[in-house]
Amino acid sequence: MLLSTLQELRVHSEPATVSFAGTVDAPSDHDLMIAVRAGEIGQLGELFERHHQRLYGFFVRLTNQPSVSEDLVQTVFYRILKYRHTYRDEGKFTAWAYHLARKVAADHYRKHAHAPAATDPADLHHHADLAPDSAARAAAADDLAFLRTALARLPLAQREVLVLSRLQSLEHKEIARLLDCSVGAVKVRVHRALQELRTVYFRLRQGKSP
């Protein structure tokens, strides 16, 4: 049940993405970034349109603070512009963007030194409409709310690896490059993080303190 709820959270937290595969002459992310690096700064706008929503999803799941997450996305693109000369030719724009996003998140936590706000489970049961159909929707909403709270209460390292793997759908090899570790180590971290998430989630559902 937890994994299906986690999948539901991914669906709710990620907006629809635009596919460019069938678009005639649509430049790749890599081509756009090479143009930005060469001084065509206007191309950064297209990269922003393609990626800002996914980066927002990454930050909002880490911080549980939508307004802060919007600011952090802006910071990522500011750094993309500032450090554009460091972009390499391997064609890994997404990996580079997440690398910058992780640094932005780390800077945010160092600066503010507090855990993300978590929804109080006591506030999760206020539903105006208790008709049968709405009761099912309310239960599903409760599941998502409990999961968001559980995720927010995980240590940052565990929360990050779950967001990357389960909510952002990055492959283990991509996460391994980001975390500078082996694919095997990523799998172990994801497994342990899921175990901890499951423990916190069911404690919340039972009305216990994590």
Question: Could you outline the blueprint of secondary structure elements for this entry?
Answer:
Blueprint lengths: L1 H12 L15 H9 L6 H20 L2 H17 L10 H20 L19 H22 L2 H12 L4 H8 L3 H23 L5
Helix pairs in contact: 1-6, 3-4, 3-5, 3-7, 4-5, 6-9, 7-9, 8-9
Overall pLDDT confidence? 80
SSE string: HHHHHHHHH
Secondary structure tally, helices: 9
- N→C terminal distance: 19 Å
Radius of gyration in whole Å, from Cα?
A: 19 Å
Structural class by helix and strand composition: mainly alpha
Q: What proportion of the residues is helical, as a percent range?
A: 55-70%
The total tally of domains equals 1
Roughly what fraction of the amino acids lie in strands? under 5%
- State the total count of DSSP E strands: 0
Unreliable stretches, pLDDT < 50, 5 or more residues? 15-23, 117-132
Principal-axis shape equals elongated
Largest sheet: none
